[in-house]
Amino acid sequence: MAGPLLLRSLLSASTLKSFSSHLAPLPRFSRCFSSGPASAAAAATTYPSAYLDPGRLRNVAVIAHVDHGKTTLMDRLLRQCGADIPHERAMDSISLERERGITIASKVTSVSWKENELNMVDTPGHADFGGEVERVVGMVEGAVLVVDAGEGPLAQTKFVLAKALKYGLRPLLLLNKVDRPSVSEERCNEVESLVFDLFANLGATEEQLDFPVLYASAKEGWASSTFTKDPPAGAKNMSQLLDAIVRHVPPPKANLDGPFQMLVSMMEKDFYLGRILTGRVSSGIVRVGDKIHGLRSSESGIEKIEEGKVVKLMKKKGTSMVLIDSAGAGDIISMAGLGSPSIGHTVANTEVCFYLVIKLSACVDFSSFSVN
């Protein structure tokens, strides 16, 4: 019994604190949000078992001021990639969102485009839901900034853009609603200049200032790299926007060889599976059946709050939740199996704690301890 007791004594609060640098960052959030249909995961279908090559992944958030056409744009992108959209504003799954016509909780989905997998995050545009924006921009490398070409950048455009630039995201500017009679090419040039000044005032880097500009009518379902009000029939689609995302947004920097770690950024409840945790895999590979731990940051260091195993791995494809067998670093996934971790906590496999024990063993001279 001396061995386990010795290891338990070594795992003190001060020792755990010194190891905290090996774990994914654990920001604190005061509010946990649960949403989504209760039976979504129960009706999930099967998805290919191999985890995705990080070089084929693009993680991007869609950000905008309220009513600038962000959610309508998401509908058109899903349809462009073959998803079945049952109704308008398909990403707004909460009844209050459909009633008020605004996005309250962030939603993540993925679409396939030319052998690439695009993880798209629909974010709230209202400053009252800034916590939602703060969480999701940490999961992505790029952002599509949607600006009404008639209204130009407004107060909440500045708010959501500041969050994106703070995390070093590569933005694309999409001037929406250019089909309106009041919008001219001169007006679009003026709005582009205003957005450039906004970037500069918010401290954007030279790389962020070199953003591509696209013109779109999300209502009519098309986007163009050049100004037009009526593109040719064969170009009335979202292909140019999707190509720009693949070309401009860098793939995630992923370490597949490290131990599995995932920072929880969203949380849902399912009637059958219980708590469903969604986040970006920061390192390693996770498979169904793996033993995992829930970890959180405290004043004394890193604390383990629960241990269990992965019961289900899921990924949103279009408007449907599908089951997967494994997932790798850089991807955004959902999992079931733990009941205690919530937003801001880290989920990691047992290799993380095993690595901690090995590090401690290498630093301690066990010959100085007596065994009774």
UniProtKB/TrEMBL annotation:
Residues 55-253 form the Tr-type G domain. InterPro entries: BipA_GTP-bd_dom, BipA_II, EFTu-like_2, G_TR_CS, P-loop_NTPase, Small_GTP-bd, T_Tr_GTP-bd_dom, Transl_B-barrel_sf. GO terms for molecular function: GTP binding; GTPase activity. One of its GO terms (cellular component) is cytosol. Gene3D superfamilies: P-loop containing nucleotide triphosphate hydrolases, Translation factors. This is Tr-type G domain-containing protein. CDD domains: BipA_TypA_II (cd03691), TypA_BipA (cd01891). It comes from Gossypium klotzschianum. Pfam families: GTP_EFTU, GTP_EFTU_D2.
